[in-house]
Structures are given as structure tokens and as C-alpha cells.
């Protein structure tokens, strides 16, 4: 009888070890910065801008990492220079015919939004990466960083560029909107 208790004790001990290992593995997960997202954060002795980029569905791993990094850089760029154009058109009609018992109504609401970010930032660099294998296909995350000092230097360089960007957007806004309308027509939205 003692011989049967020893294997049972070992099995219970092995089960405990497996459950402990699974419990520790479940405590893992994405780093804090994945959930915190992009933005400007104060740290102990420095101020920095962070961008978090992500991509899923790309099976080519080097391409996925590059895409996530580029998206992280774009998140930082959006912090500094984003132009958003907004247009909304609203049409409503109500028609009553003959004996006023039949009423026909129609409505049409259209909205177009375009967002353009154009800026040159020097000093943005990737500082961390995370691959979430729990998603299928995996999701790739990259964290980029730009120090406040580097940002100040970039802004001094970009003052002239910003005026050029505004002029470009003003000159090309109608053309860009017409392109958007053509895309909507192709897709049957209009």
C-alpha cells in the first residue's frame, strides 16, 4: 500500500508544478506600454514622446516589424502636425401628394474626413518590441521614442516646412476631396 501512495504523491507534486507553471505563464502578457499607447509621458528625469504601432495579419515577419515601427513613428508625428479637413452635406425632403394621406420622405447625409500628417522628425527610434503570439495571426507591436530636446530641435527646423504644408493642403484640398468623391462613386456610396 505504501508503494501506491508514493507514485500518487509524486503525481500530485507534478500536477502542482504544472499548475504553478501555467499560472505563472498566464501572468505574462503584453508589456505596459502596449496598453498605455502613444503620447507624451514624464519620466523620472526626462520628458519623452512615445508612439505605439501595431500590425496583424502580415505573415512576413520582417515586413510586419517594419510596418509596426513605421506606424509607431506616425503616431509620434500625429502629435505635432495633423491637418484634418471635415465636410458634411445633409439633405432631407418630405413630399405629400394628392389627398395628403401619402407622404414620401427621403434623406441623404454624407460625410468626408481627411487627415494629413506631414512632418520630419529626427531622433525617433524604436526602443522595444513585442510579438503577441496569442492572436492568430500574431500581432506585432513596436514602441518608438522621441526626447523632448530632440522634438524642440525638430520644431525649430520645421517652422518653414509647416507653412509649406499648409499651402500644399490649401492648394490640393479640392483635388483630394474630388478623389474621395470618385472613390465613393466607385463603391456605390453616392
Morphology call: flat
Please indicate the count of domains: 1
What is the structural class? alpha+beta
Helix count from the secondary structure assignment: 4
| Biggest sheet layout | 4 strands, antiparallel
With strands numbered from the N-terminus, the spatial order across the biggest sheet is 1-2-6-5
Low-confidence stretches: 20-26
Give the C-alpha Rg.
Answer: 28 Å
Number of strands: 6
Order of helices and strands: HHEEHEEEEH
Distance between the termini: 82 Å
Mean pLDDT: 78
* Percentage of residues in helical conformation: 40-55%
State which percent range the strand residues make up: 25-35%
Oligomer: single chain
Describe the secondary-structure layout:
Layout: H1 2-26, H2 32-36, E1 39-42, E2 47-56, H3 61-80, E3 83-97, E4 102-116, E5 125-132, E6 139-147, H4 148-186
Antiparallel strand pairs: 1-2, 2-6, 3-4, 5-6
Overview of the molecule:
- With 190 residues, the protein is an alpha+beta fold.
- It has one domain (38-186).
- Helix content is 47%, strand content 32%.
- The strands form 2 sheets. A 4-stranded antiparallel beta sheet has the order 1-2-6-5.
- A hairpin with a 4-residue loop joins strand 1 (39-42) and strand 2.
- The N and C termini lie far apart (82 Å).
Amino acid at each position: 500500500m505504501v508503494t501506491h501512495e508514493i507514485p500518487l504523491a509524486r503525481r500530485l507534486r507534478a500536477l502542482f508544478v504544472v499548475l504553478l507553471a501555467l499560472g505563472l505563464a498566464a501572468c505574462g502578457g503584453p508589456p505596459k506600454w502596449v496598453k498605455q499607447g502613444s503620447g507624451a509621458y514624464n519620466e523620472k528625469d526626462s520628458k519623452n514622446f512615445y508612439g505605439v504601432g501595431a500590425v496583424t495579419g502580415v505573415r512576413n515577419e520582417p515586413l510586419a516589424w517594419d510596418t509596426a515601427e513605421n506606424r509607431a513613428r506616425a503616431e509620434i508625428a500625429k502629435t505635432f502636425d495633423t491637418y484634418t479637413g471635415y465636410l458634411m452635406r445633409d439633405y432631407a425632403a418630405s413630399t405629400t401628394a394628392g389627398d395628403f394621406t401619402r407622404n414620401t420622405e427621403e434623406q441623404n447625409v454624407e460625410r468626408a474626413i481627411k487627415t494629413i500628417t506631414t512632418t520630419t522628425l529626427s531622433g525617433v527610434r524604436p526602443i522595444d518590441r513585442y510579438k503577441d503570439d496569442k492572436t492568430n495571426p500574431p500581432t506585432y507591436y513596436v514602441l518608438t521614442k522621441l526626447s523632448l530636446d530632440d522634438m524642440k530641435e525638430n520644431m525649430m527646423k520645421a517652422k518653414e516646412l509647416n507653412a509649406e504644408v499648409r499651402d500644399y493642403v490649401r492648394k490640393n484640398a479640392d483635388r483630394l476631396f474630388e478623389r474621395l468623391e470618385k472613390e465613393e462613386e466607385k463603391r456605390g456610396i453616392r
